[in-house]
Design brief:
Length: 566
């Protein structure tokens, strides 16, 4: 293709966005921002996106069959699963003006994911055990009302996703397929050039399953997720679920007499530690919650940690936790919010201690008296030694994997894919059962499997660029060769272009009448893996340069073609 036929241009002096991918992709002419979180894919950008999606499609065809569902859905479908009210990024559309509303006043959901559509489709055609297992997938735009859409293609309000849904007659069969999906995903990311930096991390199963879901996460400094890896155990967790063991404290102080000290208005462990002149680790954060069953519980972590409510829910054995209201706090502690402690709570309040609160001598905790804190508190003397310590804190850097004691490697990553065992969550909602060999109705099991194809494109740019522009891995590059012709060599360039095309090589020919400098900087910005220059100096040869390197080499055109084809 000739550059002049793209009808888009680079814009090196264009505005810088908050993210590298948006800045480079915009300046190089791959995408155009419509508004925050929504982008048009220009001819160059579409070529990259198509290549990414072709790789995804090729691997998904091995484990499923492609279709495409509507982006609009009636609200009623989302009411069936109850998700109309609970998906916090769900969007809807309405007629934009009076005339339009007069035609139809309906409101439609813009699907953020498509379980609500695929489940009834699957159900319509597959109800005998003989029909199972099977999987449908699509690659399509999704809509989510994201709060922050400042990281370019990494977080769109409209973005593209490959979503696959599998259906099974048993949990065992779902699990077997799930393993196959992991293999297919691993292949996808290898083929996309992200294999070496992509790990499978354990993440929350949401309210679908007590098991983990699995995220495919690509190491990327600008990624939004934080991962905790225990290499010797070959396991990686998303921060949201990482089990954690706090660095052990070795406290050799002599126990001192417990006292209550006044600290009017001092709330928060940092301020408190400073005020009391003690290390933050000696403070204790005690938070009161109300459980789904209506009980009040207290959870205590050592200062410097936060409580992870998902972990705490499991420890407590409840389905929901709500921060106790100010009235409840007052009723059970006798104090205003901010002074709750673990001492002398009414017996109906069960206290849970995180393991980070162990091994401390003379620690602080709220005095359950407004404006007061207890110091020099000791287990076994001022309150009984807890029968059990739990882990319900949010893991932080320096923590260890409890199973092995290995200190985690903590790093940032971008979630490029996520697979979920949904079990019967959606099939139950739609009453989707199958008839087994004995003629009995049985529940259908389901899994869902996503890959963000536009996010992958953003991640590739975040990872593969330098100060001059993008450096595309060859398998997703918009073209294999960027042919640059300099003044006076038009005929030779035309010949080279024809030869490359005849050999089936995708080539972008910068045929513009602009200076060599402009062409070279544009070639670097666009990032096609190989640059070939034809000039008066190169004669019947071409000058080869890899985008990622600085060295150039003179080659016969046939030799260049052979090298590209290997
Ligand atoms: P995140 O935690 O990043 O918000 P998610 O866990 O809500 O994502 P999933 O529902 O698991 O996303 O969607 C499947 C895949 O779609 C993700 O792994 C990611 O690659 C992609 N994706 C999700 N949200 C976005 C978005 N706003 N923009 C671009 N890609 C997205
Ligand atoms: Mg996810």
């Amino acid at each position: 293709m000739k550059y002049s036929q793209l009808h888009t241009k680079t814009n090196k002096s264009g505005k810088d966005f908050e993210s590298i991918n948006a800045t480079l992709l915009t300046k190089a002419g791959f995408i155009d921002q419509t508004m925050a979180g929504a982008y048009s894919f220009l001819p160059l950008g579409l070529r990259v996106l198509n290549k990414i999606e072709a790789i995804v499609r090729d691997e998904m065809d091995k484990i499923g069959v492609e279709l495409v569902m509507s982006s609009l859905a009636p609200k009623s479908l989302w009411e069936i699963t109850g998700r109309l009210e609970t998906v916090d990024v769900l969007m809807k559309t309405v007629g934009a003006n009076q005339a339009s509303q007069l035609k139809s006043n309906n409101e439609y959901v813009l699907n953020s994911t498509q379980e609500e559509l695929i489940t009834p489709i699957a159900q319509r055609f597959n109800t005998s055990y003989k029909d199972f297992p099977f999987a449908f997938y699509q690659i399509q735009a999704k809509f989510r009302n994201e709060a922050r859409a400042k990281s370019g293609l990494l977080r769109g309000r409209e973005f593209r996703m490959k979503d696959l849904y599998s259906f099974h007659t048993s949990e065992t069969d779902l699990k077997a397929y799930y393993e196959q999906a992991k293999v297919a995903y691993t292949r996808v990311f290898e083929r996309l050039g992200l294999g070496a930096d992509t790990v499978m991390a354990l993440a929350s199963g949401g309210d679908f399953t007590k098991d983990y879901s699995h995220e495919f996460q690509t190491r990327c400094e600008t990624g939004e997720d934080i991962l905790f890896a225990a290499h010797s155990a070959n396991i990686v967790f998303n921060k949201e679920v990482a089990p954690s063991q706090a660095p052990r404290l070795t406290d050799t102080q002599e126990p001192r007499e417990m006292e209550e000290v006044e600290g009017t208005g001092i709330i928060g462990v940092e301020a408190l530690a400073e005020y009391l002149k003690i290390p933050v680790e000696k403070t204790t954060k005690t938070i009161l919650f109300e459980t789904a069953e209506g009980n009040v519980i207290a959870a205590a972590v050592r200062g410097g940690y936060d409580i992870n409510e998902e972990k705490l829910k499991k420890v407590v054995g409840t389905t929901s936790l709500q921060l106790a209201s100010a009235e409840t706090v007052k009723r059970v502690t006798g104090a205003e919010v901010g002074y709750a402690g673990v001492l002398n709570l009414p017996s109906e309040v069960k206290v849970f201690f995180d393991e980070s609160t162990q091994n401390r001598i003379n620690f602080e905790c709220g005095a359950n008296r407004t404006n007061y804190h207890s110091i020099n508190v000791n287990f076994g003397r001022d309150l009984p030694m807890p029968e059990q310590f739990y882990d319900f804190k949010t893991a932080k850097e320096g923590d260890a994997y409890p199973e092995t004691g290995e200190v985690y490697e903590v790093f940032r990553a971008a979630e490029v894919g996520n697979i979920f065992p949904l079990n019967t969550k959606f099939t139950k909602a739609f009453g989707y059962t199958f008839t087994d060999e004995q003629g009995q109705e049985q529940p259908v099991y389901m899994g869902c499997y996503g890959i963000g194809t536009t996010r992958v494109m953003g991640v590739l740019v975040e990872k593969y660029h330098d100060e001059r522009g993008i450096i595309w891995p060859s398998q997703v590059a918009p073209f294999a060769v960027h042919l640059v012709s300099l003044k006076g060599a038009e005929a030779a360039a035309q010949q080279t272009y024809d030869q490359l095309q005849a050999a089936g090589i995708e080539v972008l020919w910068d045929d513009r009448d602009v200076s060599p400098g402009v062409k070279f900087t544009d070639a670097d910005l666009i990032g096609i893996p190989v640059r070939l220059v034809v000039s008066m100096k190169t004669g019947d040869k071409v000058e080869w340069k890899n985008r990622a390197e600085t060295a150039t080499e003179l080659l016969e055109v046939s030799a260049a073609i052979a090298r590209i084809q290997t």
